[in-house]
Amino acid sequence: MKSPDFETRRPRAFEEPIIWDSSRAPRMWEKDGMQELHPAHRCAIFTVHGIGQQHWAETAAGLRAGFEDALEEIYKWQEGENAKAAKGESARKDATLRTAALPYDLNQIKKLPSPYIYEGYWADYADLKATFPTECRDMSDKERDFFEQLWGKRPVSSSRTLIWFLRRQFSLLHPRNIPKVGAAYLLYIPLQIVATVTLFFAWLRRPAIIKGFLADVRLYCDPQGEIEKAIVQRIDRRVGSEFLKMLNLDWEFRELPWPERISRSGKLVDFNRIIWVAHSLGTVISYNVLSDLFLHAKNIKVNGDDEQIRGVDRLHDSLRRFVTLGSPLDKIAFLFGRKTLRPWPKEQRNGSDDEWWINFYHVLDPVSGVLSSDLISHNDPPANFHIRSCWIPGLAHLAYWKDSRSLRFILGRTYGAENLPDKDFNPWPDWKKNFLAILAYFVWLGFLLGITAGFFFVVEMLIRTIF
């Protein structure tokens, strides 16, 4: 029987407050008749943002906002399954049952808030003090002024970025790429016209757009000179350091001093189940950082002391999933190869779990795609899942924060099926994904040809008006 309180989900004034912040969850909860540490205090998400002038916690807040609705959908599903069980119907007919027997204890499950999210923030790399805080403290005022001027002429130069990007765009038209990309090569011609005109006018009217978005891609994927390489290295180190803080570790896999550890609501965190979630260019950064972490951990496991070895074990035991959203990793592998992507130690990639690395993509997201390059997968590609939200070309790249299926997937893996049971995730079959890929090809071709034709029509009208 359905509970009226569950239907409205509006708590009464005299009831206990809703746990809207994971830090306010009770320290212990009862599970299968036993008292154990509440999942909100040991399960968390680490997220890495993509390109753009991001603010601290902007991506984490967007992810958290999506979780609010996803949790409500999970509760509705559980209530529906309980109703089926009350009628004697089979609530789970599949053979891959991973949750406890129904009915679900909704009073217990609803005590789970949205999980704690910590962000590996790097967007302020153009700030000298943020990128090199230690070095900056030793500089004189004149030295700082000099390097800030240098920053403007190197990593954040709009003209430098525009020229670099246009060269990359036109390099895609080289005939040697035809065997590699197949029929998609036909999309490149209208794409170059649209991209060239758009970027040129953006550079003239809004150079901040070039600085705020494309500069990130150019700097990270193709750094030139010692300054830019140092910045890129610091981006990787900053992201890695923030993740290791969630494990109370430093880069040498030693325990962090108490003042340097993460705290929330005045209490230090101690997580043992973490899901790494990255979006767009953040997936490329995350891939490289994880490669470095695994390689460093492998060496320390052989040569380190007992404290370091315990830290390495904690890394492998706590990092449960790597989730990429709208990832351009295959495209980066095609365009830049080992110049941008470091090798991932093969034995560390998936372990024994086929679901360790999950990639969500959309055929109308020009950045994303199926990840299958041997350069990054070692013939063992991640699980590639197509999202079902947003069917507008281009805007699909921003749809991941609102796609309930992918958000429910992440929530379930964060807390574990034993704590937050949900329906099985059934990805689309290959035939449907292939059909969507073909359909998307013609959508993109029509979209680009339409814009190109419109551009030439406007140019022709202007010429006739002037002459």
Broad shape: globular
Query: Assembly state here?
Result: single chain
Average pLDDT for all residues = 82
Percent range for β-strand residues: 5-15%
Distance between the termini: 78 Å
SSE order = HEEEHHEHHHHHHHHEEEHHEHEHEHH
Fraction of residues in helix: 40-55%
The low-confidence runs, each spanning 5 or more residues with pLDDT under 50, are: 1-8, 91-102
Strand order of the largest sheet: 4-3-7-8-9-10
Rg measurement, Å: 25 Å
Structural class: alpha/beta
What is the count of β-strands? 10
Number of helices: 17
Largest sheet: 6 strands, parallel
Keywords: Membrane, Transmembrane, Transmembrane helix
Transmembrane segments: 185-204, 435-459
What does this entry look like structurally?
The chain is of the alpha/beta class. Helix content is 50%, strand content 10%. The protein has helices at residues 4-8, 58-86, 106-109, 128-131, 133-137, 141-153, 158-171, 178-181, 185-205, 207-221, 225-246, 281-303, 306-318, 329-335, 374-377, 404-415, 430-466; strands spanning 28-31, 34-37, 43-48, 116-119, 263-264, 267-268, 273-279, 319-325, 357-361, 383-386. A hairpin with a 2-residue loop joins strand 1 (28-31) and strand 2 (34-37). The N and C termini lie far apart (78 Å). Keywords: Membrane, Transmembrane, Transmembrane helix.
